[in-house]
Amino acid sequence: MQSKYFNSSTVVLQSGARRFNCTGSQTVPDCPAYSSATSYRLNANLYTNIYNATSLYISMASADYGAISLDDSFGTAASNTFLTLDQNCSLSETMEWAEGINDGAGMQAAAITADVLAPAFYSWSLDFDSGIMDINFGEPVNATSLIASNINFQEIENMGTNAAANIIALTGTNVTILTDNGSSQKINLGNVNMNKIKSLSPLATLTSKTYISFSQPAYKDMSGNDMSLAYVSIYDAKGTTSFTPDTTPPHLVSFDLNMNDNTLRLIFSETINTFQLEVDQITLQENSNSATGDSHTLSTSSTTSNGFMEDIIVNLHSTDVDAIKLLDMTVGSSTHTTYITFTSEMTKDMSDIELAIIPIQDAINVSQVGYFVPDTTWPSLLSYSLDMSRRMLNLTFNEPVRRSSLDAGEISIQNVNDVTNAGTNEADTPVPLITSSTSSDNGLNLVIDLSDSDFNSLKMAPKTALSAGTTYLIHTAEAFTDMIVPANTAKPRDDANAILSSNYVTDNQPPTFDSFTIDMDSGTLLLTFNEPGDASTMDVTKINLQNQAAQVTCNEYSQCTDGGSVGSAYYALTAESSTTVQYDHTTITVNIGTDDLNNIKVVDSFFDAQSKTYLGCEINMIYDISDYSTTTNELTQNGVVAVPLTAATLATSWSPDVTSPQMTSFSLNMNTGYITLTFDEPVRSNTFNATGITLYGVTSVYSVNRLELSYETITDSRNGLSLSVELSYDDFNLIKANPSIGMARSSSFIKLDSLAVDDMATNGVGWVNATEATKVDNFFEDNTRPNLLSYDFDGTNGNVTFHFDEVVDASSFNPLGVTFQTSKNAGFITFTLEDSSVVDVDGTDVSIWFGPADTTAYAGVSNALGSASITTYCRMTSAAFRDVAPTPNSLTQIGDGFSILIGPKLQSFVVDANVGKLELRFSEAVDLDSVDITKLILQNANYGTTSRALTGIDSMYYKHDNRTLGIWMSSADIDYVKSQNSLFYDIGTTWLTMKSEFIKDTVKLSSSWLGPNPVQAIADGSALQARRYSPDVTSPELVSYIVDMAEAKITLTFNEPVRAGVLDAGKITLQSHADIDDADCETYTLSTASASSSADGTEVILTLEKNGGLDNDFDEIQYVRTLFIDKAHSYLSMMSSTVVDTSSKNNAVVKISKNSALQAAIYISDTMAPTLLSYDFTMDSSQNTGLITMTFNEAVNVTEFDVTAMSLQSTSSSSLQSVALTSGSSSVSPTTRALANTKSVASLGIIEVIVGEGDMDKIKKNVALCTGTGTTYLSLGSSLTHDNSLNENAFSAIESESARQVRTLTLDVTRPNLVSWDLDMDLGVVGLVFDEMVDPATIVVGGLRLQYSAFAGTSTAKFELVTSVVDTAATVAREIEIMLSSDDLNNIKLITQLATGASNSFVKLDPSFISDMGGNAVKDLTDGNAVVCSR
To answer: Which of 821, 957, 1024, 1128 could form a disulfide with 830 if both were Cys (CB 3.0 to 4.6 A apart)?
Structure first.
């Protein structure tokens, strides 16, 4: 056979001799194949080997070999291996076609040699995106023979070169075989292998990083031969023929949350780089849409373990866990409330391009938790601190606690760890926090704000909470819960397991005084503080009592610091009287001693009502209970904060004094007629009523020897513990006339009923034993001689009645002691009694009858003696009478020369200045109808320097059997007296003299008695001082007032004289309506600048402030457009401290309420033209302007201010040298206009006028004008402005003939500046322009230099003028021209770099070059600052 003609494709290998099942006319290959027959036709004619003519070896192609190998139905043994050949498969040597071997006659193999060759690895490729790996062998391998664990992925070709390079053996887990048996095997590596590989980045991230090796055969061929390991070890690994990197982004597969161990498990679709995992991109939320619930984004504090993995545990940091719990467990409380979202920035995969994770977006693809473990751990207290200074207990927990669950009542503080087993007296009873609470939010820290009561309980516990070492805490399980629902209760802290304070802050806050109560009956003062006080430290002398919240001081005119009219009363307790109850507590009891209590009670309107009960205290009045200071290492105390008397505390409770005062002693002075009553507490003197007093001769109140005092027995004492009672003249003499009462201590007893006097709390005086009177403690016997006051004489009947100043003993009468005579001195006729006798009983009036001898003797002198009042005098020796005293006192002798003229005598008088009443007590009855009031003189001293003879009587009345005359003085006399501070001002200035014509006795002409007899005159120098003086205590009232806006005055008329000098206008408010609450009412309160210069009196003229300037009262009134514009809008109210009357009491005026203001009686409108008071002129204002500041006597209109009415002139009488301002240049300053516009009407009292540059130039140009105050005068037209009144009174013009001189003139001191300049080299002219008027006469041309540039330096391109001159026609102006001389012009032209154009023409000026009109040198232009030519 010729092998070159052999066609291998004619060879068919088959499993049997027959391949086709032909029947009938069927022929191969149309016949169907046997159902079990298999065959394979060779495809490739690879090559043949012929060793002899009869043998042919066919070398099968790998494809044919592989196909045969893959079919185990033939070729595995001779029995299933047959061969057929197509006809003409080859040519013989003789070129004959070989016969074929037909189907059905297939030739069975003579022998089969089994496959024992190891299949060889050829190549591999990897799609790392899909995880599919393709391995190619030299022959078919059995796909199911795969042992994946024998395949290694490695980072480099030869692991021997780098032991640190990544290498990993695959695992068979999750590997999927994708192909059947064959030489090419595809497998899906599966997630497990993919993630393991990815975890070893950069393995399998690039082609250059992707190799495989085989540690053991991974496949077998179809004959069971293990693959060859030749050239595939870890030292000879094979790179991929094709590599597709990972391009699929990772995604979250699921997540779990364990709130018990605080872990978040994230399961991803592939391995990710945890180094790149950003936990702060993760958000846990309540719902799939965060808009409908809470959420929390993790912080970077939460962490993961580092590495590459797909199953990641995030260890939630406590801050995140706590934050989640603090969402009130709306997030992470159950499976239904736990969702996750995160951004694509959260993490990346392990691929070389680091693919970002697919985000889970809110409300789009939110993932719900897969496995959830709730929090079941009970919360516990980790530590706490106690701040006694801030009163806070700060609790720190291991997890957030719900604030509403905190029950402070389940928490107690104790001083030792184990109270139960503490030694005797070592432990206090634990202090529960009963009423404390927290305002903290839910959280790890809750601050308990210690309530006052709990804080105070801690303070009161003697050993507890004094320091950190004495502060332990216990609590029950119910003390608090965590945030979960249902909640986990607290881990309890029991006794013996108490927790010690981790920090303790000593109380360094001073206690504060909170409140006080007082019982004025018992004198118990209860002081309450915000914390317990140490009673032993109380200093009662630092307790200040006051009757107002703020201490008010008043001057003598009742004008007080608070604007009122009543000063504050003040009293500090004394250590000698008041004591402290020694019991530590928040309320400290002070027992006010008797002396202190009485000193308090005695002050009127002081602690007599709750509204009058205030208390202040000085700093450190008391100290709190001590704590241990870590700073000083000793117990320390804080002193109480002072309560200043400017902010005293009102009593929270006040109990009145309800105990009646008791008389403790009394004294009786029969010499002076005074009874002194002493009580156990202060009594109110003005409640004294003598009719409640009975004097007895014995102790029994049932005795008939008694005398009830009359209402005329009075006291002038002040409120106090004792009253000095002045017995009335009649009561005093009734006592003397009763021999059983008041003759000695043994016959002097007294009893007071409740009517007699009240204490300061209106409790009537009490009496211990109602049936017994009290014996006098001190008795003073009468040792005063009686005096004869006057007498009545009836010569016809021989009867004489003597009038004494006290009771005399009628039986003591000695007629020889009585002499009558016709003159003051013993003269021609005298008559001394001999046998006259008394016919009356003891008394102040004693009548005698002439005896026979006296009758006869009198008859001999009767023609002169006793025939007329002026010839009837009497004198007595001391033997004439004696009084009724136990030791009788002889009569005061009336010697010759001092004889008493017949007629009544004024014994005494009292004055009631409050009502303007005099009561005159005479020695005998007087005749009211005989009164000539003009003969009664009031004076200020015995020798009067101020006096007033009364001018009228309002009315009169009698008392005491016509012996007392009451006179109501006329209002004229009252007002006059009140206006005189030195007359009838007090008892020391209250004296009387009278002429005998003032009044007569009651003897009738028709009577046998001599008379009527005029009163005994009282001469100056022998004036009688008032026995008693009652001051004026009635407040004056404003009766009416007149408003005169023209004169800027308010005339005030009062019902009595007032002190004009102390009138405080600042207490007067002007109103447009009677009621300030009227919606239309406008008001203005005057300032103290408005004042009065009136004398004291009923009429006071108040001059409104109208002195020019700004904001004076007159202007402010007119700014209020409806106020005081007419009578209908003129109302006035005033405070009581506005003014006082002229009395010694300085009674404050009656307040006029702002709700019922008083309308003016008369209103006079403003018709006065405004005037200029003064003006100042500043010629050196900004930007070459001037400023005239004008001060008017009142505000004038700014809007219509006419500057053209203003002219400045050089003299007061001529306008020859003058400048009239122009509206185009000058104007009212913006400052003035702005200020004026703040007023209701744009007007001011001070106007600033800016004198513009144009007008200033005119003024400066006039060399005779405004060079000094002597050349600066101002004339003003009436059109200048008008005032602010409704009449709009035009300004009072100042004519040019009487111009007003300036007050101050500020001259221009600003140097002129060059504005620009130009140069005409053709005409040779230099033009200069300045910013103000300059004087060409002052030019020094050498002060000007031309130069080529701003800075010339040492350059020669510059020239100073030498011979140039000013234009001879030049006058004062802003612009001047210098005519260049030919020399100067030619010299300039010679300098070729100078003045050839504007660009090289600069001017430099020296200060000497020129001056302005004020002599100010021009502002120099130095080299470097030269100015370029403008043209």
So the answer is: 821
